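Supplementary Methods. Inverse-folding protocol.

Structures were first reduced to a discrete structure-token string of length 127. This string, shown here, constituted the complete conditioning input.
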């Protein structure tokens, strides 16, 4: 299950994160977010459930760490191309904001628009 969910997530992220400008990066984040919390909601919920279980299961934690690192690497490369001072830290920060919004949308049905947060974090990463 972990491998299949990673395949789904990486396919979405790999396509979404080939931006040529900060605006395209934010658009890609928003599109990925809408997919993961809309049509991909069941897969996202399963992945989040596995993340919670991983807190108690070291073997599962190890399995989940690899796909997460791969997804972060895609963001790191994109941010480096866009001129981020510290692409790794920027990818980590953007990923944390993204995941936070995903959890809020899935768990609490929070309809807050994530775009302003994504714009703020991406622009901060690039200045």
């Amino acid at each position: 299950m972990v491998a299949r969910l990673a395949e789904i997530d990486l396919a979405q992220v790999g396509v979404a994160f080939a931006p040529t400008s900060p605006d395209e990066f934010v658009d890609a984040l928003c599109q990925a977010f809408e997919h993961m919390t809309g049509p991909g909601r069941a897969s996202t919920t399963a992945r989040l459930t596995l993340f919670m279980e991983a807190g108690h299961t070291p073997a599962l934690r190890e399995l989940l760490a690899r796909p997460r690192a791969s997804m972060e690497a895609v963001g790191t490369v994109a941010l480096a191309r866009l001129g981020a001072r510290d692409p790794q830290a920027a990818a980590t920060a953007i990923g944390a904001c993204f995941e936070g919004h995903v959890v809020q949308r899935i768990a609490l049905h929070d309809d807050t628009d994530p775009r302003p947060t994504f714009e703020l974090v991406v622009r901060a990463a690039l200045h």
